[in-house]
Amino acid sequence: MGVPPVVPRCAVWRRWAPLGWLTGCHRSASAQQGGTNAPGVLRQRELPRSAAPRPCGWRPRSRRALHAAAPSWQEVMLTSERYGVRRLPFSRVSDGDVAFFERIMPGRVITNAEELKPFNVDWLKSVRGCSKLMLKPQTTAEVSQVLRYCYERNLAVNPQGGNTGLAGGSVPVFDEIILSTVLMNRITSFDKVSGILVCQAGCILEKLSEYLEEQGFIMPLDLGAKGSCHIGGNVATNAGGLRLLRYGSLRGTVLGLEVVLADGSALDCLASLRKDNTGYDLKQLFIGSEGTLGVITAVSILCPQKPKAVNLAFLGCQSFAKVLETFTTCRAMLGEILSAYEFMDEKCMELVERHLKLSSPVTDSPFYVLIETSGSNSTHDEEKLNNFLEQAMASGLVTDGTVATDEKKIKTLWSLRERITEALTHDGYVYKYDISLPVGKLYDLVTDTRARLGPSAKNVMGYGHLGDGNLHLNITAESYSHSLLDAIEPFVYEWTARYNGSISAEHGLGFKKKQFIQYSKSKEAILLMQHFKAMLDPKGILNPYKMLPSSS
Ligand SMILES: O=C(O)CC[C@@H](O)C(=O)O
Ligand SMILES: [Zn+2]
């Protein structure tokens, strides 16, 4: 990637370069990033240009690379041992069960222990189950058959998409049958007039994005795990991501769902309507239910028009107060074209540089912000952005920065933020907290946690979706330790509850946070959730040990 020679380099303060240039003293990203995760390499368009519905189950881009670099499966302690969990009295998978599944989906029944290993461990290598069976249905009818059988036999089931979850919700705790959506990867329809996409649950988010982009649309959500995560898993966890500020949450953009319930009955709520006020909105029950109420098999989702002009500014700020002020200023000055406002602290930058060999495009600062604009008129958008940047500069809100309009350069800048999670996995064991807070208090939690843990933590850092009031507080240590965990929890949850925050903004509760739900939900609300669970899944076979605390 060439840097325009006319741009002043490495000055203490640089003038803003014309939009579309990456300014400053960063080294060539293409020479340094390498690896299969490098932007541009990973997001090559693989889809043919035809608009016809097609499967979208291409090989995920990033999980392989990450798994290759991380510790081996055997090093991950069994969840049941680490957390002292007792197995519930479900039946155990018998040879007869395997024979039944082989009959209904020949060749798509995995019992080989080696093959099963990656699906028993989460992406973070923090929880591990010991499932002996994975099933790969292709149709809703097959999911129905499987669940009907499991329900009768009292066999526990762990629905699994791309296994990119960060709260331990996507892998078994014991020997639950893994019900993978990996082969449910067909796009059913896309309506260019309404922008409504209907697809199976196992479509990979990035493949959907590529498919839509060919037609002038985008997915309303975007996240770092896009190369592996499945849309069904996104909906099941109500994933937020980088575009929520602009397009809202999946609770608004998902228009319909098809779900198979625990007893195998299929619930068709796959509406493709913007408006539908006929009775309770049942699909909302399954959005964010983390596979505990039903298995999502198909999704109908409203997709925005692809913006014609996208700009990304990467800026350095001297304090968190300036990060906040920059946000209010840019919201006021950019208005409708603001599409993302993300922040990261200097620790995050240090770790992406050290572990991923990415390079910062700006001079070292205590905080960095990424501001994305998306609009339909590049002249108008650039003028607005320039005005904002001049003002931010003149008033000392930001002390350094760079701007990109070129798609490749935008991706390079985004990767500094998107790949923090990956960088942290190379730093040791990661304790992960995904907190919603009043935005003004967001970084205080990082500072207080850092002060509390002192040298017992290797690194404590904060980043996230500032525009959504969502902090990702991450703590690394050489290895997992009970005593460090005890120092963090419930401290972080109590702190969050004190400011009426949420202990899970977008990652869900999964296995790791289910016992702490009471910090964010009232007793009555939890009880009602348990009633819903008991009504829809009376035997509790769907994703047991997750999301809700045990009622006893
Ligand atoms: O790793 C994390 O804590 C956050 C992951 C993801 O939600 C992100 O925003 O990058
Ligand atoms: Zn996030």
Structural write-up:
- The chain has 552 residues and is an alpha+beta fold.
- It folds into 4 domains: 29-42 and 307-421, Alpha-Beta Plaits (2-Layer Sandwich), CATH 3.30.70; 63-180, Uridine Diphospho-n-acetylenolpyruvylglucosamine Reductase, domain 2 (2-Layer Sandwich); 187-302, Uridine Diphospho-n-acetylenolpyruvylglucosamine Reductase, domain 3 (2-Layer Sandwich), CATH 3.30.465; 428-520, Alpha-Beta Plaits.
- The protein is 32% helix and 17% strand.
- The strands form 3 sheets. Strands 13-10-12-11-15-16-14 form a 7-stranded antiparallel beta sheet, sandwiched between helices. A 5-stranded antiparallel beta sheet has the order 5-6-9-7-8. It has a 4-stranded mixed beta sheet with strand order 1-2-4-3.
- Strand 15 and strand 16 (470-477) form a beta hairpin.
- Helix 12 packs antiparallel against helix 14 (378-394).
- The longest helix has 17 residues, at 378-394.
- The chain is globular, with a radius of gyration of 23 Å.
- Residues 1-70 have low confidence and may be disordered.
- (2R)-2-hydroxypentanedioic acid (2HG) binds next to strand 14 and strand 16.
- Belongs to the FAD-binding oxidoreductase/transferase type 4 family.
